[in-house]
Specification:
elongated, two-stranded antiparallel sheet, mainly alpha, 4 strands, 121 residues
Length: 121
């Protein structure tokens, strides 16, 4: 079976994508709900990447100090965090300011045209 950082692909999916990916998702959601900027999550993503590598090493005998595996794990976690951040920030903007913004895409909003801005009650 192929490996990523000295552990199997199933270990990578289980530990990085599912376990730490859900933590990254919750981090992105927390940043968006608290009106924090997205870049504050980068440090959290780097630390989650370290945690994912350590759990892979400690429980599944993966390589701890594998730079390529760390970069891959951290990139997956930062992507999950950014998607969650954009999704929840868009939802928050549309819910809090429905007379100003409308959903453009599921990850972004736009201003309503000037003629359609009405305060909905």
């Amino acid at each position: 079976m192929e490996s990523i950082g000295g552990a199997s692909i199933s270990v990578f999916i289980g530990v990085t994508v599912i376990l730490f990916g859900s933590a990254a998702w919750m981090t992105g959601k927390a940043l968006a709900v608290a009106w924090k900027p997205w870049w504050q999550g980068v440090l959290y993503g780097l630390l989650l990447g370290v945690g994912a590598r350590f759990i892979t090493y400690a429980l599944f005998q993966g390589e701890l100090l594998s730079p390529s595996a760390y970069v891959l794990s951290t990139a997956v976690l930062l992507l999950a965090m950014l998607i969650a951040f954009c999704l929840y920030r868009t939802h928050r903007m549309i819910q809090q300011y429905p007379w100003l913004y409308e959903r453009q895409w599921f990850l972004h909003w736009r201003e309503k045209p000037a003629g359609t801005r009405k305060l909905e009650t």
